[in-house]
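[Automated response] Your request has been received and processed.

Submitted sequence:
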Amino acid sequence: MTPEEVFDGDPVALAIHDEIRRTLLLLDGVRGRVSRSQVGFRRDRAFAMLWCPGRYVASDVLSVALPRALQSARVKQVVHPSAGTWMNHLELRDVADVDDEVRGWLVEAWAAATVTGHSKVERPASSRATGTRKGEHDT
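Generated structure:
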């Protein structure tokens, strides 16, 4: 699937995706993964997911994985799925919602999404050649 297919029929959601993608294109090592319900972005691990409205959530929701819970009225929900990771969920209703504050959180999440002090698991040669895993694409 492509982001255009995920957000088919929802031009606002696609525009929000495109704005987030433009921000992430400036960062090194970002890959995208598209599923039926979301477009995710990862470095060594996933750090941001944009959910398709109407499938599992009512509106556009950007989930940002950070090593802290955000203290902002813009955050609709925070969950703590694992040690050192807080998933911060933001509702986005317009492209203008992807502002400098959200971009800052995305950059912070990208910076935290690297494996430091651990050796990386070697991927099979077929996926190493492209630098992506099945279902992933370079942004």
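Summary generated for your ticket: The longest helix spans residues 11-25. Helices lie at 3-6, 11-25, 100-112, 125-130.
If you did not submit this request, please reply to this message.
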